[in-house]
Amino acid sequence: MTHPVLGEIECVRSSRARRVSIRVRASGDVRLVYPCGVSEMRALAFLEEKIPWVEAARERLSHRRAALPPQLPPAEEKVRVEMLRRAAKADLPVRIGRIAAETGLRYAKLSIRASRTKWGSCSGRNHISLSLFLMTLPEHLRDYVIVHELCHTVHHDHSPRFHALVDRLVGGREKALSRELRAYAIR
C-alpha cells in the first residue's frame, strides 16, 4: 500500500506475530507486521503514531549508508570475501577454542559463514555460527562477539542472566563493547 507520508509500505498479517511491529530496512523500505487478531486499520493507526520514529530510523540508516565505503565490483568483492574466509578459518577456530577454555564455556560445533545480517549465532544445540566478516573488526570486538555467542550455550536468550554473564566475562564492559560494535556494519 502507499502511505501519504512514508510512501510504499509492506503490510503483512502474520499468524506468528504477537504484536504490531514496524521494521525499517537498510534500503528505507518499511514493513508493518500485525497479528491475525488485529485489524489492518488498527495496525495502520499504530503506524501513524510511529511516523516520527520511522523517519528517524530512515535518517539514521541513510547516515550509516553514507559512511560506508563504496561497494566493490562483483569480481573484486568475491576475491575480498574469499580472503576474509581464509583469514576467518585460520583465526576464528583458534580464537573460540582459546576463549572457551578461558571461560569454561563449551560449544558443540563451529561453522563460519558469509552472513551479512548477524556477526554470530548459537543454536539450541550449541552450534555456533560466526560471520567471516568478523575479520573486519578489531580483535577485541571479535572476542566480544565470541563471548556473546558462547554465553548463549548457557542462556539461549537475551535475559538479564545472559547479559550478567556476558558482562562478567568481559570485565564489566558489555554495554560499552555492544555500543562500539553497533558502529560497525557488516560489509
TrEMBL record:
InterPro entries: UTP_pyrophosphatase-like (IPR053136), YgjP-like_metallopeptidase (IPR002725). Signal peptide: none annotated. Residues 73-175 form the YgjP-like metallopeptidase domain. This is YgjP-like metallopeptidase domain-containing protein. It comes from Alistipes dispar.
